[in-house]
Amino acid sequence: MGVNEPGSSTAVAITNIVKRYGIGDASVLALNDVSLEIQDNEFFTLLGPSGCGKTTLLRIIAGFEQVTAGVVHLYGEEIEQLPANKRPVNTVFQQYALFPHMSVLENIAFGLRMLGKGKAEIESRAKQMLDLVQLGGFADRRPAQLSGGQQQRVALARALAPAPKVLLLDEPLSALDLKLRQAMRVELKQIQEDTGITFVFVTHDQEEALTMSDRIAVMSSGELQQIGTAHEVYEEPRNKFVAGFIGETNLLDVTVEEVRADAAMCRVGDGAPIACSVAGNTTKGARGHISIRPERMSVSKPKRGDKLTGIVDRLVYLGTDTQCLLHLDNGTEITVRAQNAHESTLGVGPGDRAALNIDAGAARLLVD
Amino acid sequence: MAGALNPGGGGAASGVFGALRGWLLAPSLIVIGFFLLAPVCMMLIYSFLTKDFRGGVIWEFSLAAYDQFIFDRGLFGDEPPKIEWIYITIFWRSIWQAAIATILCLVIGFPTAYFIATRPAATRTVWLFLVTIPYWVNLLIRTVSMKFLIRDTGPLNEWLIQFGVIDTPIHVINTNIAVQLGLFYSYLPFMVLPIYASVERYNFALSEAARDLYASRWTTLREVLLPTVKPGIVAGCILVFVPSLGAFLAPDLLGGAKTFMIGSLIEEQFKGNAGNWPFGAAASMILLTVVLIVLMIYARQQSRAEERGH
Ligand SMILES: Nc1ncnc2c1ncn2[C@@H]1O[C@H](COP(=O)(O)OP(=O)(O)O)[C@@H](O)[C@H]1O
Ligand SMILES: [Mg+2]
User: Fold this and answer.
1) Of A164, A277, A285, B235, which is least surrounded by CB within 10 A?
2) Which chain B residue's Cα is nearest to A108?
3) Is the pTM for the entire model greater than 0.80?
4) CATH ID of B14-309, from 3.30.450.20, 1.10.3720.10, 1.10.274.10, 1.10.101.10
5) Is residue A61 classed as helix, strand or coil in its secondary structure?
């Protein structure tokens, strides 16, 4: 069914959006000059900690909030003046907001009925949606008679039934338990690909964002931090916030020794220079941080000439991995993660001296 | 010991628990029995007794009271029975008056309750307080002041004339409208408060969901908000309709001979020496029976609708 190539046209364009709740001293700046473009047929995720303005942005697209400044375009059309019921956009609400007095089928049929579709079409389309979310036998149930996971599916089917141009999902999986959440991630992604509808998905869970999204917009306190694919935001974070929020990372103080075209040589303390990719511009002699993921480093028994050494604080067994907490001689705490192979290959134990080895290409210089 | 921790666990311990529970319930059961059931039973018994001419009753079984309500047997009670329309008419009028008062209360009370429930939490209490302030004054006083407000030379008519809206006073006093206004004014908070309670619990995300799914404001109100807060509306309607049906202050003070209601009829039977206690009791029982039947039909329909899943 997916006919459109991702990126073939712009579904939602947000331009310089400012949103302020309230007036005067008591006002809250929920969005501060946010601009982004969501492509047609894209699974786009808004990721950020609670309170960063994700829901606000979603509600602006849906038509439940007015912007303080800025413009919103939907497929090239300016939509601020359109009330929520005139926008070809549907929402899966955080707490589902299913109509308690209607059956599952009536809930799903509601949007189609409001659009004035014929009885036969409503019936067949609603049934089709029920099957899509695998709730075929539940048509006559009330929402209160369903489990959380089933209610979530009904909310999804209800929002998909009118075939919106854009589907907005506000943390739809956050109320489900882990197993169900993981299963739903796969299913949601599958549905998005099958229907070809543009999904704007809100979450505070970075793992969820990484596994599902075509592109991720990372937000923090009302501001956009970075937009990119999962790979980009994870491997090439633009600043300390993104590096820290997405996955785990270690930050080391460094001095820039040499700047090349797209890389820099940085020195940690008096150690050997490390080649780093760079976010932004930097100059020789500048101080900054490098971010290194725990799985891109290893520890070993120290040899002569090793400059980055420390004492192993603790080893934590995590099933697939073992995590090693290392206290460097310069005072920095470092987390290293090693996959558990057949036998323990770390070669060091708590209290031992150890050397820290950084994989080639693992370090990223953050200037801010 | 395990039984004591688990009241449903059976055995001796549960028997002790059962007895204890019975004792704890006793005070409320006694209060309900004494103040609710006993008076109704007394009225039921009185309605089957013979009337005493100085008021009161003679303890002798008789169906005369019900007979008088339904049949007309002529002045001396010796003619063939015809249906007595006077009381049925009064009864029917009472139902109408109460129904119109209920609708008035709903039309005004619902937006009021909605308005209050959608204010910020801090100001809601103030609004609720304002709604209930007039009800700190005795109902009789309020009904009398209503009479002064709406009579031909009262402030309402004078203002309307002064501002040139009308030339001659609108005659409201002693009409059905006056009684309906009086009932409306008497029982409005009984409508506002239960509706407020249910709108306050209403999840406004449901309205947003409806709007999101292309419903207009009006459709959202009709298809989502109203059905969801229906229990509050039904409770409000019952709480206004039932006392309106038996009311006598508003019809006595604001109405005239043509607006006579069943409450006044009953009241008259127990006042002074001219009354007829068994007849008043019989009229009360008939009123009670009709109210109960209506409520039961409603409850039956509701539970059927629930079973149908609608
Ligand atoms: N209706 C509102 N009135 C006032 N402040 C609000 C309102 N809605 C959200 N906010 C504030 O705006 C900020 C962003 O909120 P929100 O968009 O809900 O964040 P998120 O969904 O990322 O958790 C928060 O500081 C929140 O307190
Ligand atoms: Mg939110």
Assistant:
1) A285
2) B213
3) yes
4) 1.10.3720.10
5) helix
